[in-house]
């Protein structure tokens, strides 16, 4: 369980970059609470101050359980059973890793759904230590059936994704980050070509906020680049339409998380796959988010080295 000291440090030292996507989420959730009486928000202290006015206006639909992340998901399951559409929010490691059993039992096993919205991503707050790093969250969600995962690459992508998730009835994980591309791309998550190198060219698929670094990494190379903010369900039809014999997958979480999706989609074709993302080794370092991107080879220079070695 997160300590009071941990939570206080997190809230007091939120960077301006981190609040951009989070603030778009809070503003949109506030609007949804006013517009749709089915919407509920469940918190575990993180972002509680941001929802103070919403809590005053909708005391029966904004629930802060305190620093009890497992209870937060259990409450969401109860609200879903009562016919509400719960939006559950905290840091990624507390929401997915710490409360995984409750997601499995109180949501999936009871056949109810919720919208999980995390901040912190893989290593947005490394100065807070290993407790706040969560590169394995999408891989964990992927062990469950039928979840949609959105990894927006720009703050402007957040409001429409949240609105669509709350309006639906499926299980959704919306992963917010401090990292962002220079412009939004939106869409429904189908693969969107942003750089076309022509038929037969190697295909690089960039997920969420790693698009800009990916584009910089392949500058001057004949590589087609496609973007998606929706790694689940993965756009396998789009992949088959775009892929030649070489596919490069760049994801802002655990390396190889979507490898099986690519391999299954192209099982009937000869192909080579390079899966790039956060490494499995515990670096045991603090540093900054930029430092971690560099250490994991997810900055433009690191991606370029990996792509060059793969393509020869």
Can you tell me about this structure?
By secondary structure, the chain is an alpha/beta fold. The protein has 2 domains: 163 residues, Thiamin diphosphate (ThDP)-binding fold, Pyr/PP domains (Rossmann fold, 3-Layer(aba) Sandwich); 120 residues, Rossmann fold (3-Layer(aba) Sandwich). A 6-stranded parallel beta sheet has the order 2-1-3-4-6-5, with helices on both faces. Strands 7-9-8-10-11 form a 5-stranded mixed beta sheet, sandwiched between helices. Helix 11 links the parallel strand 10 and strand 11. Helix 2 runs parallel beside helix 8, helix 4 packs parallel to helix 6 and helix 9 crosses helix 13. The N and C termini lie far apart (47 Å).
> What order do the helices and strands follow?
HHEHEHEHHEHEHEEEHEHEHEHH
Assign the CATH superfamily of the largest domain. Thiamin diphosphate (ThDP)-binding fold, Pyr/PP domains
How much beta, percentage-wise? 15-25%
Gyration radius (Cα, Å) is: 19 Å
Spatial gap, N to C terminus:
47 Å
Order of the strands making up the biggest sheet: 2-1-3-4-6-5
Give the count of structural domains.
2
> What's the story with the biggest beta sheet?
6 strands, parallel
Tag the structure with descriptive keywords.
38% helix; disordered N terminus; 2 domains; 312 residues; five-stranded mixed β-sheet; globular; alpha/beta; Rossmann fold; six-stranded parallel β-sheet
């Amino acid at each position: 369980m997160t300590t009071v000291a941990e939570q206080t440090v997190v809230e007091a030292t939120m960077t301006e970059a981190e609040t951009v996507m989070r603030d778009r989420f809070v503003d949109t959730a506030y609007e949804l609470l006013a517009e749709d009486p089915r919407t509920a928000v469940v918190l575990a202290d993180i972002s509680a101050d941001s929802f103070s006015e919403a809590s005053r206006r909708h005391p029966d639909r904004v629930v802060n359980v305190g620093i009890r992340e497992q209870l937060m998901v259990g409450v969401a399951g109860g609200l879903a059973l009562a016919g509400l559409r719960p939006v559950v929010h905290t840091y990624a490691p507390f929401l997915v890793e710490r409360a995984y059993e409750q997601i499995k039992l109180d949501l999936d096993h009871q056949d109810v759904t919720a919208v999980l919205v995390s901040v912190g991503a893989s290593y947005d707050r490394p100065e807070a230590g290993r407790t706040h790093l969560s590169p394995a969250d999408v891989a964990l969600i992927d062990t469950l059936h039928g979840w949609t995962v959105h990894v927006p690459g720009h703050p402007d992508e957040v409001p429409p994704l949240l609105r669509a998730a709350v309006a639906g009835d499926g299980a959704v994980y919306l992963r917010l980050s401090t990292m962002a591309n220079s412009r939004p791309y939106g869409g429904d998550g189908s693969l969107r070509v942003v750089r076309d190198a022509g038929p037969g060219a190697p295909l690089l698929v960039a997920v969420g906020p790693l698009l800009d670094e990916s584009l910089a990494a392949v500058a001057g190379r004949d590589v087609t680049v496609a973007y998606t903010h929706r790694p689940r369900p993965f756009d396998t039809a789009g992949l088959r339409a775009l892929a030649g014999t070489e596919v490069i997958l760049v994801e802002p979480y655990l390396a190889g998380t979507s490898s099986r999706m690519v391999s299954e989609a192209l099982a009937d074709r000869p192909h080579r796959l390079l899966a790039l993302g956060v490494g499995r080794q515990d670096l045991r370092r603090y540093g900054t988010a930029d430092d971690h991107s560099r250490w994991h080879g997810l900055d433009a220079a690191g991606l370029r080295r990996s792509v060059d070695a793969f393509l020869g």
